[in-house]
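We treat protein structure as text, and this decision shapes the records that our systems exchange. The tokens are whole numbers drawn from a learned vocabulary of local backbone shapes. Below, we set out a record of this kind in full and without editing:
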Amino acid sequence: MPPMDPGDLDFGALMALESHGPDVYVGISPDYPWGRVYGGQVVAQGLRAASATVDEDRHVHSLHAYFIRGGTSSEPIRYEVDRIRNGRSFVTRRVVARQSEGAILNLSCSFQVVEDQIDVQESMAPEHMGLPEDGPNEDWGLMGHRRILQETGHSASWLRILSDLGDDRVLHDCALAFLSDDLPSNASASSHPRVIELAMDHEERHKSFMGASLDHAIWFHRHSPVDEWQLHDFRSHGLTGGRGLASGEIFSQGGLHVASVAQEFLFRELTR
């Protein structure tokens, strides 16, 4: 299966994994401009593989991913699902994504049956962020992107999947996972004094620093269509030992608290 241009791809097609035996699935990757496979894609495809082994009345409520090595778009990605536990309310799955050089991702997912319980939202969308039309168009590939804030240790954008996702709940959950890997690294990197001092844009940063996602966690609170604009609001917790930590929240345009995300990011300054 040859790599594809991300601009020519429908998100549903990217998530259409091939079954290669019991609990084993294979996916393909577009050619991304930075050379490696986009981490959010591997998490999304891993979630898709895990969901294929779970009953339809159970939905993902959290996932935790460790990025082991960078993936390549020149070969397929194999997703091996381990059915850790099938409970009456909760289901646990572990997914290992592999290529020829070995494992590239270790993913744990927990699914819960829908429960009729109280819903209390304490986190509210910030009021000063503006609307999607207020930000410049930074769309790339499958992602609609309108950046509305970038300052030291803080990054916020309106994001959505550009494909029509229909009413497939699993596809929307995978799309949220895909988008959630885009902004945390920007929040972490913007804490670095050299980035601040030189007012580096994304391209300049790649010349002076080496960065990669290390681990990624998502808590899914409420369902909201991911082919509609959602606000991703991330703040840095600082940098130490070549690592940065950022956490943030995702809100629908109507103010619904959809998800919370945390990511540790490798950020090394290259030799000057």
Remarks:
- The two ends are 40 Å apart (CA to CA).
- The CA atoms of residues 44 and 177 lie 5 Å apart.
- Residues 39-51 form the longest helix (13 residues).
